[in-house]
Design goal:
The complex is a heterotrimer of chains A (295), B (224) and C (283). Chain A is α/β, with parallel strands linked by helices and 295 residues long. Chain A has helices at residues 2-19, 47-55, 82-93, 111-117, 131-134, 177-184, 199-208, 218-227, 253-269, 271-278, and strands spanning 58-62, 65-66, 70-72, 79-80, 101-105, 122-123, 137-146, 148-153, 170-173, 193-196, 213-217, 232-234, 242-249. Chain A folds into 2 domains: 47-146 and 244-283, D-Maltodextrin-Binding Protein, domain 2 (3-Layer(aba) Sandwich), CATH 3.40.190; 148-234, Periplasmic binding protein-like II (D-Maltodextrin-Binding Protein, domain 2). Helix content of chain A is 35%, strand content 20%. Chain A starts with a helix and ends in a 17-residue tail after the last helix. Chain B has 9 helices and no strands. The chains are: A alpha/beta (295), B mainly alpha (224), C mainly alpha (283). At the B-C interface, helix 3, helix 4, helix 5, helix 6 and helix 7 of B face helix 1, helix 4, helix 5, helix 9 and helix 10 of C.
């Protein structure tokens, strides 16, 4: 008897909880530029594009936890950020508007597999082009040239580049490439290295003053700086080169050439800049246009 | 073998840190757990309630959440400052890990001690009082020796659990055996082999403890 | 208060002293809790803005999904761990050395390796695919081994007359084990089993280390969201409350079962239950 009462109470509580749900988002965000949807697009010889046409929509792999880059709003479920806008632009030029895009959040570790399996048509999410990955997938772009940089408090003028890190506490994700670089090059003392599970935890520790700098690709850091431009700044002296590409199925050269054409047009035609200004540009850091590397 | 030898700079400090975390947290939780057990059997109701509340909360919360609290929510209390640790971030997070492990494990230690004390029949204490023993004598020569028999085997289990739980600190900026594999993948080493070495390390530490526990259990169960 | 070994029933003087202690105790407790609440309030943790996230429908469904993921891993893990435990308990009790020794080795092995390392081995080492499988596999093997020990202790604690009688009526070894011994062992060991299940439920939280989207994973994610003011303290409180509620529910269920068992009198009175303490302590 008591069990049943409890179950009913729980159910009622659950219903009450969902019934009072609020829609929408807490803060208004500036809308990114809308793209004109192309019509009658042909990509001859592309298996992926054939699949897209048969399906009637594109499936894009993105990140969901990188503010300013690939970010899923927890209240509305909408995706936003630089990477997402680039993904939208490509989709529009392929003939698919916002309503015909399906986003799939895929974490770094699962990217190659998702492209190989064909779970996503293309992937846009802080995806560094390198030769090892080129053996499994192919890349269009780069659409952005990132580099390892430092995020610091806006008031902090003591950190001006990697050589000024000695004696400062530096945070990044456990075992990640950027923190290995800091370790290997001895940029700061071993006891000053903080390794947490994700970048937002590092940013939180930076805000609280438990660490002095967060290090990873400047694109990611700019995303956080864009959220709180009054609190953080990106130092702006990248000390590595991370060209971000759009991940595609290997051997789909037709689609790769098409996406490269789209990107080239966007970079020279000013659309790239307006996307940057609406997203990462809010951090106050200037943009450097990427140079395409076709292969 | 290559994975172990090539990365001794990871394995060495990793294993040492695990043992260090374990030893300090074990000592801390034994002391705190015994104090808590004293609270839980004390004749003052409010002490008992406080002890029960502590044990209920800590025992039913995942250890990861305790870590989470100390790494991210606790600093907001502003009881300690990051600067108090000699400017060393490693010491700062190591301390948090120690506190989390100690507080969590002490709840289990408390329960073990308490149930150990409860296994001693009330008649034993009554008889010793009747003989005119003081409180200290009664505790030292009658109650505790008997309680120890019931306490030590499960206490070994608690300590084994603590040893294994130290790996959870991997996610909270404490370098120990749990974080070795995360660093190995960046070096392009075979993760499976790297992890198997870590597993072997724990097996080597835990199996003797288990065997000791079993033999103690067997010997004392006959004696009773 | 029930009579304790350590303390005499208090006389009038002692009662006065206890009242004084109680007053001091309450003061210390209130001061401590008050301080924490004050500091959190001072740093704005109880501001409406920091709790606003809880009102959004999408956040609620996300949390419910995460809760379901936790419960799902728990349920599948619990069932598999019970099966694993029963099989290996029987194996450990086997008369054949060929079966007994490997079974014991397996149980000891999985009891010795930390769950985090087990989960890492499955996820990063072997690559089982979706994190769910690695979490469940880890939970099953570790808790299954502990449960095997519990079942074994339960069977050993049964009076020998039970198996002797079963053999006497002509049952086979397998029948004796499955029809007579294991069912009774499970009943006798119910409290220990449930407390191990509480451990399993809590350990499912480790899934967040390999991006299994359970409760703690979402807590970490929501707690880091700037738009909500990084509500780490509120989310910790909410998630801790959910975990404690779930675990207490399980424990309460265990007590309920135990009480019902005692009433039904089908369970045998056992003299010593050493395994119960062992398991209660094994986290």
């Amino acid at each position: 008897m008591r069990v049943r009462t409890l179950a009913v109470a729980l159910l009622a509580g659950g219903l009450a909880l969902t019934a009072c749900g609020k829609e929408g988002t807490p803060g208004g965000s500036t809308p990114a530029p809308t793209q004109q949807v192309a019509t009658d697009v042909k990509v001859d010889g592309s298996e992926t594009f054939k699949k897209i046409q048969a399906r009637g929509k594109v499936v894009i792999g993105v990140k969901e936890d990188q503010p300013g880059l690939g970010y899923k709003d927890p209240t509305s479920g909408k995706y936003s950020g630089f990477d997402v806008e680039i993904a939208k632009l490509v989709a529009a030029k392929l003939g698919y508007g916002d309503d015909k895009i399906e986003y799939k959040a895929i974490a770094s570790a699962g990217r190659e597999q998702a492209l190989i399996n064909g779970d996503v048509d293309y992937y846009v999410g802080t995806y560094t082009i390198n030769d090892k990955r080129k053996q499994q997938v192919s890349f269009a772009g780069p659409y952005f040239t990132a580099g390892q940089d430092l995020l610091v408090k806006k008031t902090d003028n003591s950190i001006t580049g990697p050589e000024t890190l000695k004696g400062k506490k530096v945070c990044s994700v456990t075992g990640s490439t950027p923190i290995q670089k800091v370790k290997n090059e001895g940029l700061t003392e071993a006891s000053n290295i903080v390794e947490l599970q994700n970048y937002s935890q590092c940013v939180q520790q930076l805000e609280q003053g438990a660490v002095d700098a967060v290090t990873t690709d400047d694109a990611i850091l700019k995303g956080y700086a864009a959220q709180q431009p009054d609190v953080f700044k990106v130092v702006g002296k990248p000390f590595s080169k991370e060209p971000y590409g759009i991940g595609l199925a290997k051997d789909d050269k037709a689609l790769r050439d098409k996406v490269n054409d789209i990107l080239e047009e966007a970079i020279t035609g000013g659309q790239w800049e307006s996307i940057y200004n609406a997203t990462l540009g809010k951090s106050g850091s200037p943009a450097t246009k990427p140079v395409l590397e076709r292969y | 073998m290559d994975v172990l030898l090539d990365n001794l700079d990871l394995y060495g400090p990793g294993f040492l840190n695990t043992i260090e975390l374990f030893l300090i947290a074990a000592a801390g939780s034994l002391v705190l757990g015994t104090i808590l057990a004293m609270l839980r059997v004390s004749p003052v109701p409010i002490f008992r309630a406080a002890g029960t509340l502590y044990v209920t909360i800590l025992r039913n919360t995942p250890l990861t959440l305790v870590f989470f609290f100390f790494a991210f929510a606790f600093p907001l209390l502003k009881i300690v400052d990051a600067a108090d640790f000699g400017g060393s971030a490693a010491a700062y997070y190591f301390t948090f890990a120690l506190v989390s492990l100690t507080l969590y494990t002490s709840a289990f230690v408390c329960e073990v001690v308490r149930s150990g004390i409860n296994t001693v029949p009330v008649g034993q204490a009554e008889a010793s009082r009747a003989l005119g023993l003081t409180f200290g004598q009664m505790l030292g020569s009658i109650v505790l020796p008997q309680a120890t028999r019931a306490v030590v085997p499960p206490m070994m289990s608690t300590m084994i659990a603590l040893l294994k739980n130290t790996t959870i600190a991997a996610g909270f900026s404490v370098f120990q055996s749990g974080s070795i594999s995360l660093n190995l993948s960046e070096r392009g080493e075979n993760q499976l082999i790297g992890l198997l070495w870590v597993a072997l390390f724990f097996i080597i530490l835990v199996i003797p403890m288990t065997l000791l526990q079993r033999s103690l259990e067997k010997r004392w169960s006959i004696a009773r | 208060m029930s009579a304790s070994v350590l303390f005499d029933i208090p006389g009038p003087k002692a009662r006065m002293r206890y009242r004084l202690y109680a007053a001091i105790g309450i003061a210390v407790l209130v001061a401590g809790i008050g301080f924490v609440v004050y500091r959190f309030a001072a740093s704005g943790q109880f501001d409406a803005a920091k709790w606003e996230w809880l009102q959004y429908k999408n956040v609620q469904t996300t949390l419910l999904d995460a809760l379901w993921n936790t419960v799902r891993a728990f349920l599948v893990g619990a069932v598999l761990a019970m099966v694993f435990g029963a099989i290996f308990a029987a194996g450990q009790l086997s008369d054949h050395k060929v079966v007994r020794v490997p079974a014991m080795a397996v149980v000891e092995l999985f009891r010795a390796v930390p769950l985090v390392v087990l989960i890492f081995i499955f996820h990063y080492g072997i690559g089982l695919g979706a994190p769910f499988y690695s979490v469940v596999a880890g939970l099953t093997l570790y808790n299954g081994s502990v449960l095997a020990e519990v079942f074994r202790a339960g069977v050993l604690s049964l009076p020998r007359g039970q198996s002797e009688a079963a053999y006497a009526v002509g049952m086979r070894k397998t029948q004796v084990m499955t029809l007579v011994l294991l069912p009774q062992a499970v009943r006798a060991m119910m409290p220990a089993i449930i407390s191990q299940l509480v451990v399993l439920l809590k350990d499912s939280a480790l899934g967040f280390l390999i991006t299994y989207e359970e409760l703690l994973y979402q807590a970490r994610y929501l707690g880091g969201i700037f738009e909500f003011g990084r509500p780490l303290v509120p989310i910790t409180i909410v998630v801790a409350a959910i975990y404690i509620a779930m675990c207490l529910l399980l424990t309460w269920f265990a007590n309920y079962l135990e009480k019902r068992n005692r009433r039904s009198k089908k369970v045998l009175e056992l003299e010593a239950k050493p395994a119960e303490d062992v398991v209660a302590a094994a986290v």
